[in-house]
Amino acid sequence: MSHFQGRGAEPALLEKAGLVLPGQKRAEYYDRFRGRIIFPIFSLTGKTVAFGGRTVAEATPKYLNSPDTPVYSKGKLLYGLNWTKEAVREAGELILVEGYTDFASLYQAGIRNIAASLGTALTPHQVALAKRFAARIIINYDGDSAGKNAALRAVPLCFERAVQTQVLILPEDLDPDGFIRKFGPQPYLDLARKSPTGLQFLIHMTVRTGRMNVPEEKSRIIRTIVAELDKIPDAIVRSEYLRQAGDHLGVEESLLRQIIEKPGAGKAAEEKTPLFPAEKRLLQILLEDPGLADDILKELQEEDFRGLRSEGALVFILNCAREGKRVVYSELSGAVGPELWRQVSEMMQERSCRGTLEEAQDCLQTLRKTALEARLRALQKEIVRCDRNGEKEKLARLLSQKQALTKKIMSM
Q: Which of 86, 81, 83, 82 is CA-nearest to residue 96?
């Protein structure tokens, strides 16, 4: 504080930058990171945009990061990528850890194709950033239950962005820093090479939620897995994942395809599949922060969520905004079906970090792309049918539409 004041910086500006916090007395401020080891956080171009601090006095929280500011959004950066992007590009894969101490331990051990997500809430923007430098991400969060659940939430995001994924869970509930200190870099790299694919991890974690010997439970588990695979935009990759899933689960591949193409129980079966991660997070932000929702709803259009599982809830929220009314959470139950209401209720009971406008915009962009990709898949099926039946004029129109739609998706 005194350093910046000596340079003529106003306290209000320092507060906006996330460096100080207001005290109890008027015009009193104190350093946000007092008593902490400081880790500068850099943009991709190497500019310092924020800080992280680890306590040296057993204060809580143990780790403290800068809040979102005009120059920093946690969900848009990967810590350390400014140093490691060339090593990541050369390796063709990125090892993703949780925080700066894990990053520092791996880097000092000579493992350079790494970055950290600064927390376990991986965002679509971070996945897209990683994809610029590598086709594959190895997710290595802590080995405890929180780390495993965070990895489970991250895998579908990678599916949506067509990123190859592996998940490294270290033994003894160790984090990467603890493992490197105990065993060294080579055992770590050996485990990374043998780590299961995102699909294998998804199946393993989902199967644990029920009993596969009970038909109803088996159906729920399989539909949950297939719903995540349906997010994969590449039809060939999706087809191969369905084949592999069928082998793992002991289910005919053709049956898994029927779940995607013709849900066996009609609309009711479709409603019981989980919400997309971006869809779920956008709903959380809209319902938890009415003030922020006003800014988000200005950008929301019906076509952004048409066909989504949460369409009924989003229509209700958008209509409330157009009528100038605040969204009343309890009134939502009468506007959506019982299954969607159950999912929304469970979602709202989860603990989540406060959303930002940038995160909501990222979710909205992901949903827009998801909707376009769904239209592209439907269009491709119609193209195949027209080609098979010799409908040349219609086929030419559909091919032109496909080209325009593909171009639009690629530009996002």
A: 81
